[in-house]
Amino acid sequence: MEQPQGLRERKKARTRRTLVETGLRLFDRQGYDATTVAQIAAAAEVAPATFFTYFPAKEDLVFAQQPERLQALHAAIADRAPGDSVADVLLRGARLLLESDDWSIESDTGLSAVRARLVAEEPSLRAAALRRLFDIQDELAGTLARAFPDELDDIAAHAVIGSVVGAVISTAMSAVRRGAPETVPQVAIRAAQIALAGTA
């Protein structure tokens, strides 16, 4: 018999996913600034207080997939196999993030493109993404340096992470602006390969 704790966690995961999908659809339909937390909660059939149980602010809903995916990326770097190069590990991590559908918030609902467009077009979300990006790069560089202590010092790790992240984000945003968000995984992987060319 399934334990009550397991049932509670599954219900919480469903509620979180419903809030994310509902919020993104409302942002897409009526605009990010015009959509209120109260409207998202009503459409998701929960109380506004429930929204804040899951997300501190409206912008956190847009970036809801980040913690889970970053945790997976840190694990992919830290758990490098013997003989893996820096390029091997980072390309594997890029493919994990960009090509896998195995996430609690699925990438096949069509909402990944909505999220990317919102970040590309909304000034407040662009600023939030940039603010988060600085922390993400710093944390990833630390994980990479610890995974390759004999090959990378702190400066080298930050340089490698910065080049890869910059290449991936630049090409992904370009694809979104061209109206071709479905090409993001392919172009971003190629960008990562180019950025890592010559990296051992």
Question: How would you describe the overall organization of this protein?
Answer:
It holds the Pfam family TetR_N. InterPro entries: DNA-bd_HTH_TetR-type_CS, Homeodomain-like_sf, HTH-type_TetR-like_transc_reg, HTH_TetR. Keywords: DNA-binding, Transcription, Transcription regulation. This is TetR family transcriptional regulator. The chain is an all-alpha fold and 200 residues long. Helix content is 74%, strand content 0%.
In the CATH hierarchy, the third-tier topology of the largest domain is known as Tetracycline Repressor, domain 2
The largest pleated sheet is described as: none
CATH architecture of the largest domain: Orthogonal Bundle
**Count of extended strands:** 0
How many distinct folded domains?
2
Structural class: mainly alpha
Q: Report the C-alpha radius of gyration, rounded.
A: 18 Å
What would the principal axes of the Cα set say about the shape? globular
Distance between the terminal alpha carbons, to the nearest Å?
A: 50 Å
Quickly name the level 1 CATH class of the largest domain.
Mainly Alpha
Order of helices and strands: HHHHHHHHHH
Write the topology of this structure.
Layout: H1 4-30, H2 37-44, H3 48-54, H4 58-62, H5 66-78, H6 86-99, H7 111-121, H8 123-147, H9 154-177, H10 184-196
Helix pairs in contact: 1-2, 1-7, 5-6, 5-8, 6-10, 7-8, 7-9, 8-9, 9-10
Keywords:
about 200 residues; mainly alpha; Arc Repressor Mutant, subunit A; Tetracycline Repressor, domain 2; 10 helices; Homeodomain-like_sf
Question: What's this, in brief?
Answer:
The chain is 74% helix and 0% strand. With 200 residues, the protein is mainly alpha-helical.
